[in-house]
Design a protein that fits this description.
By secondary structure, the chain is an all-alpha fold. The chain has one domain (about 5-115): Four Helix Bundle (Hemerythrin (Met), subunit A), CATH 1.20.120. It contains 5 helices and no strands. It is globular.
C-alpha cells in the first residue's frame, strides 16, 4: 500500500516536518489546506509546492515524505467531500500536553479563517 493511501496522524506529518528541519506545527498548514481545498480545490502539485515553501525546501527530502504530504491532502479532501461530514482537524493526540493541543487547534482555526477571508 502506498503512503498516499494510508491514514495520516498529526505525529506522522510532524515527523516529516522534523525531517526537513522544521519545528512548525502541522496544524498551521492543516488550517491552510482546509481553506484552500474549500475555496479552490488546490491541486496535489500546488499543495506540495506550498508545503515545501513553508518548510524552506525546494522539494521533499525523499519519496516517502512526498507521498505522506500528498496523502495528507488526499485524506483531508476526502473528509471534506464526504456526505457524513467526518472531517477532523490534524491536531496532536492525547500523548501531547493539553496546552499543545489547544495551541494547535487555535493556530489551525486562525489560518483557516485567514485563508477564507483573504480569497
Amino acid at each position: 500500500m502506498s503512503l498516499i493511501d494510508e491514514r495520516h496522524e498529526f505525529s506522522d506529518i510532524a515527523d516529516v516536518f522534523l525531517l526537513h528541519g522544521s519545528m512548525q506545527s502541522p496544524a498551521f498548514l492543516d488550517g491552510r489546506l482546509c481553506g484552500l481545498l474549500a475555496l479552490r480545490d488546490i491541486s496535489a502539485s500546488a499543495w506540495l509546492e506550498e508545503v515545501c515553501l513553508s518548510l524552506g525546501v525546494e522539494q521533499p527530502a525523499d519519496t516517502s515524505s512526498g507521498e505522506r504530504l500528498l496523502g495528507w491532502r488526499k485524506q483531508t479532501l476526502e473528509a471534506l467531500s464526504a456526505s457524513d461530514l467526518n472531517y477532523t482537524p490534524l491536531l496532536p493526540d492525547e500523548l501531547f500536553h493539553w496546552l499543545s493541543r489547544r495551541k494547535a487547534s487555535r493556530t489551525g482555526c486562525k489560518v483557516l479563517t485567514k485563508s477564507l477571508t483573504t480569497w
